[in-house]
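Entry details:
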Amino acid sequence: MRFVLASNSPRRRELLNNLGVSFTISASSIDEALDGTAIPHEEAKRLAFEKARDIASRIDEKAIVIAADTIVVSDRILGKPTDETDAYQMLKILSGRAHKVITGITLIDTSTGKTVVDFSETTVFFKTLSDDEIWDYIASGEPMDKAGAYGIQGKAALFVEKIEGDYYNVVGMPLFRLQELLNKHFNISLLK
């Protein structure tokens, strides 16, 4: 089966590569603006669905389109920071608290139109961060393209006291849920 990843995310690419999955990349150009009034898991699912639908509509051959969208939720939905000040404010919100990381995932079979939309949720516990730690992290450049202004797989790992749930969900692709959905709805195993 041919897979198409509807994402330019190097993290999602790396996770699928680590599994030995053969796929092509076709990034969606949908507007990823967040609706701050939406129910968080519905917002993540909506964005993943829109990405998958956009790419599936452009593919003429048989494939499974995989799309994901990750958001961070504390007092509000936190997307990608717009600038360093926004990143600082997000990290200040997360400091010393637990927050949710929600990834919406959509799979579309382009030959049948079969569509599956789901989500995965992980709780992440941050230590209390000093202003120096926050600004040093921002200076690394890591937070600027990541939901919630941090990447658990990078330097922000130093902020994480513990997690409850799927680590890979926090990275941006809930591999356990992906396999479950492929197996249950498309009879596909990523182990083969």
Notes: The chain has one domain: 3-186. The chain has a mean pLDDT of 94. The helical segments are 10-18, 40-56, 84-94, 131-139, 167-171, 175-186. The beta strands are 3-5, 23-25, 64-73, 77-78, 98-109, 115-126, 160-164.
